[in-house]
Structures are given as C-alpha cells and as structure tokens.
Amino acid sequence: MKKWKIKIYWKDLLKKIENAENIEGKEAIFDSEKVLWKDALILGKKGIEVPEELIEYGDENIDYTDIPPITDEDIASGKIKWIHKAEVPIRKEIED
C-alpha cells in the first residue's frame, strides 16, 4: 500500500527539524527559491533532497587567496589540462 506524504514548505520543514520534531511522512515543497547550502545539508541529512539548481553556495564568500596561480610550467608538465568544449546550435538542422 502506498504511503501518503504531507507536503510542507521547505522552510517550515527546516524549522521542524531544528525543533527536533518528527518529519516522517512529510515532503518538502520548493518554489524555485534558493536554499542556502547549510540548510540543504540539514535537509539532506534527514532524507529531504534539495534540487541542485536551487542550492545557493555563496561562492563570493569563499577565500581563494591560498590557491596559487596557474603557471606555464603547470600546463607544460600536464599538471593542469585545458578542456575544450564546443557548443554547436542544431535548431536549424532539427527544423529542416
């Protein structure tokens, strides 16, 4: 027999988790709103999967100062490899 799930807005579900309430039988509703990575992690630990495209990582807050610059030596040695990606529009070929 199929178990029914109660659909709850993800922020309300997150509050229930933070208050140590039982969330069994509940499903999160996401309305194309960005979810902070910390909240996505909390939801994920409870089995609630957040769509990847909705997770906000806040990359602008990451400190990259400890990452050394890429040198010609890195490329020559093969330590760094360039990946070439080509995108070819095919709409015209599909329509023909």
Q: Could you explain how this protein is built, in words?
A:
- The chain is flat.
- A two-stranded parallel ribbon has the order 1-2.
- It has one domain (6-95).
- It has helices at residues 10-18, 37-45, 72-77, 91-95; strands spanning 6-9, 26-29, 35-36, 55-56.
- 30% of the residues lie in helices and 12% in strands.
- The mean pLDDT is 85.
Helix content: 25-40%
Structural class: alpha/beta
User: For the terminal residues, how far apart are their CA atoms?
Assistant: 49 Å
Let me know the average pLDDT. 85
Let me know the number of strands. 4
* Shape category: flat
Strand content of the residues, in percent? 5-15%
Largest sheet geometry: 2 strands, parallel
* CA radius of gyration: 22 Å
Tally of distinct domains: 1
The H/E string reads: EHEEHEHH
**Number of discrete helical segments:** 4
Largest sheet: spatial strand order = 1-2
Unreliable residue stretches: none
Summarize the structure.
It is built from 4 helices and 4 strands.
List keywords for this structure.
96 residues, two-stranded parallel sheet, single chain, 4 strands, alpha/beta, two-stranded parallel ribbon
Topology (elements, then pairings):
Elements: E1 6-9, H1 10-18, E2 26-29, E3 35-36, H2 37-45, E4 55-56, H3 72-77, H4 91-95
Parallel strand pairs: 1-2, 3-4
